[in-house]
Design brief:
6 helices; 177 residues; 38% helix; five-stranded antiparallel β-sheet; alpha+beta; 8 strands
Amino acid sequence: MQTIIKTYLGDIVAFYYNKEADCIIPKDQGGFILTKKEFKDILDGVKKFYDKVNEDEINKYNKLREDQKGGNISSKLNNTVNIISKDEIKKYGLIYFLFGNGYTKIGKTVNLKNRKNFFDIKLPFKCEIIHVIKSNHYSKCELFFHSIFSEKRSNGEWFDLNEDDINWIKSIEVKNF
């Protein structure tokens, strides 16, 4: 199987091409195939997004992302693009920073204990939660941090952050939108 598309929809969803069946298989970050309902929800969400934006807005967003390459954290903070509409329902939760195997995972959850247990079972290496940030809109907050560190993305939601990055993250306790 070959990964042909990766995108972010809360958790990572990867699309794999299966030669034998000549079809594309959507899987979540744990490697599980999405149910028909989960995939329909994703399609509905993507359709809503494209119904709300026009080609010029997409090009403007992509141009800003291109301009961010090579920038520092403060310039990225000033240029972070809001891709979630203000009309969305806010959801309280946590952004966690999990360190393991030399990389930092930036994720979101409403139940930190369950999320940590998931990684303890699934990952072949030990991880530790190095910081947690409370947010009134945890999906938006997670995208915010992914955007800031986009140039340091290693794979999926795992980032190659340095000591300065970690110290800056640890200086933030609450991030509200």
